[in-house]
Amino acid sequence: MLAVSGATMVIASAPAFADERSDLVEQQQEHKREKERLQSELEGIDVSLQDAYLKLEETRGKIPEAEAAVASAQNELAAAVREAEANRALLDAAQGELAGIKDAIAENVANADATRKSLGELARATYRGDTMPSTMEMLVGSATAEDFANAYRAQAAVSRSHASSLNEFQQRAAQSKNREARQSAVEKQIQDLKNKAEALVETQTVKKNEADARKAELLELESSIVAQSEEFEAKKTDYQSSLQNIEAEGEKTAQRIAAIDEENRRKKEAAERAAREAAERARQRPGAPAPAPAQASASWIQPPVPAPVYVTSPWGMRVYPFGGTWMHNGVDLRSRCGEPQTAPADGVVSDVVPAAGNGTHGNQIFINHGVVGGNSYVTVTNHLSAFNVSRGQKVSKGQVIGWTGQTGRVTGCHVHFEVWQNGRVIDPMTLSSFTRRWS
């Protein structure tokens, strides 16, 4: 007879919640870093083209997660189907065993009835005294010793038969009791399996709906990619004009810097001339020491935002993701919208340029730091949301000059910071007071 196992099916559990949450947080951070990188790469391009490209890339970035969600939902559905199939196999086996038990009980009942009838007839015959002759009657009635032996053996056989019938009846009664108990247990097991089957049907329905929903989301993303790609291609006609604007704006900035450097050069020459004259006068006064030349401190300049400084896009040449190159004259630093930006060093605000008509740069501040260590320095800050200084104003290192924004042709709040040395732009992160941290 088939035995039905009560073991339940074990499905592999999902990763621990903490690990899963950590992975999701890391994915979010990675998406944020990637978005900042793309925003920096696209700086200066027409904003509508930036938006189209960023939306396209963001949608493309969602495809792997959507595919993983579909695969996960389908795996869960397959696991539910396998468990339901295993449950059906257990149910079929239990029902088969129950049928066998019922057949065995029916057969046992029939045999027990026959045995009970035989024992009843024996009891009635015994009561009447016509079952078997006594030993004395057999001895008297036997003509020979052989007749007596045969009669005795026959009587013994009948006695054994009666005893066997009684024993068989008792065994069948015990078997019936055991099988009835087993029948009750199997019937309960069958009911439990049926209940579980109903629950599994509901689970399968939920899992199938989830898988279908994830699949629909994936198909929707794929459709969005097609539509966004078409939108992006349509907007690329403005790309060349954006590149030309960037070059023109860069030239305008360089001209401003050149004018400031020329002013610094004149001031430097005047200062050197005054220093020479003072030295000559001092030389003519016996015993007077010559004035020591001014020395620049290595920490004369600092980042425009509080430490730690996170670089989202470094200084240097850029290659646009859809062709073309441009020089990124500064570094892009992570900074929240509205965060104060400060003067990197003492100086004079040489220009404050509003966003209107200033294309890529948006709200822009030029600070002339004069000549430091024999070199003329100018810093430029772009994309501010608002100004806190005016043209011609003297500023001190650390003084708030404005607030982080996203004015100009950019799509996210950040700091664009430039350092010009003798009319040439340099990488701010090479300065000793700047510590590079990558976002």
TrEMBL record:
<dbReference type="GO" id="GO:0004222">
    <property type="term" value="F:metalloendopeptidase activity"/>
</dbReference>
<feature type="domain" description="M23ase beta-sheet core">
    <location>
        <begin position="327"/>
        <end position="428"/>
    </location>
</feature>
<keyword id="KW-0175">Coiled coil</keyword>
<feature type="coiled-coil region">
    <location>
        <begin position="21"/>
        <end position="83"/>
    </location>
</feature>
<feature type="compositionally biased region" description="Basic and acidic residues">
    <location>
        <begin position="262"/>
        <end position="283"/>
    </location>
</feature>
<feature type="compositionally biased region" description="Polar residues">
    <location>
        <begin position="167"/>
        <end position="176"/>
    </location>
</feature>
<dbReference type="InterPro" id="IPR016047">
    <property type="entry name" value="M23ase_b-sheet_dom"/>
</dbReference>
<dbReference type="InterPro" id="IPR050570">
    <property type="entry name" value="Cell_wall_metabolism_enzyme"/>
</dbReference>
<feature type="region of interest" description="Disordered">
    <location>
        <begin position="260"/>
        <end position="299"/>
    </location>
</feature>
<feature type="region of interest" description="Disordered">
    <location>
        <begin position="167"/>
        <end position="186"/>
    </location>
</feature>
<dbReference type="InterPro" id="IPR011055">
    <property type="entry name" value="Dup_hybrid_motif"/>
</dbReference>
<protein>
    <submittedName>
        <fullName>Peptidoglycan DD-metalloendopeptidase family protein</fullName>
    </submittedName>
</protein>
<dbReference type="Pfam" id="PF01551">
    <property type="entry name" value="Peptidase_M23"/>
</dbReference>
